[in-house]
Amino acid sequence: MNEPRPAHLQPLPKMPTGIEGFDEVSQGGLPRNRTTLVMGRPGSGKTVFSLQTLLNAVRSRRERGIFVAFEESASQIAQNAVAFDWGLPALPESKLFFLDAHLSPTVVQSGDFDLTGMLAILKAKKERMGAGWIVFDGIDVLLAMLRDPVAEMREIYRVRDWLADNAVTAIITDKLDGRAPEVAQYDFMQFMVDCAIRLERRLEHGASVHRNLLKMRGADPPAPVAKVTLSSAGKRRNPNGSGNSGCKKTRKEVRDAS
Asked: How far apart are the two ends of the chain, measured CA to CA in Å?
């Protein structure tokens, strides 16, 4: 006999990002052991948001994390992070591990390429470290090199199944199409995740970044996150106003804690 379904489903447990303001608007952070998609045009702050969230988990809560770099090399990302006061070079690999997945088109287009081997390496590393977080940064770059929609879909579902089987809080970044800024290159991935965030970069009083929280499974419709500016400590509140992202809902200005 089937048991009756509860009248109100419980919201998903959350993991804080350590980004003050975002955790408030998202009602606690990102869904625990689920996947979040972060979308934006180049330079909108996708990598910064993902890496800052990972670093906050490692430093503030003594968690472990893995950062998989598909677009830039791991060394480039580490070098870029030096501009922020994050102390990244001091963190040992046992706490934060970077996997350089920056592959050449020749390797990807060889005809035999898939992510099975890399995901096996990540599983072993995750278990050895006890990692609870993982970031797949710039996976759209790898998928585009396949030049085969069927192969692209196959690898996306392979990653989705791996994440479902491995109980990690995950972030995947995806570029928005420059010709149609509201559309992600792999827009259908929004329907495969539990949280979707869109970042927009607008130059007002410096490098201002607007965040819209598009989807949070199990939560009330959230208000979009307003503008922040980049500083040496990461993302911080713009003191000159809350900004206007073109949405009619209430906006909340945020300050990102590093």
From this structure: 51
- Residue extents of the structural domains in the chain: 31-204
**Cβ 56 vs Cβ 116: under 8 Å:** no
The helix or strand, by DSSP H or E, that contains position 91, with its residue range, turns out to be none
44-103 tens-digit pLDDT:
889 999 999 999 999 999 999 999 999 888 888 888 888 888 888 889 999 999 999 877
Q: Which of 133, 55, 134 is nearest to 88 (CA)?
A: 55
pLDDT at 41: 87
Q: pTM here? A: 0.80
Place of tokens 């430093």: 59
The token duo for 127 is: 């278990």
| Residue spans of alpha helices (H) in the chain | 22-25, 46-61, 74-81, 105-108, 116-129, 139-146, 149-166
Distance CA 21, CA 256 (A): 7
- Kindly state which CATH superfamily the domain 31-204 is placed in: P-loop containing nucleotide triphosphate hydrolases (3.40.50.300)
CB 103 within 8 Å of CB 93: no
Among 165, 176, 231, CA closest to 200? 176
- Any residues with CB less than 8 A from the CB of 150 and at least 6 apart, and which? none
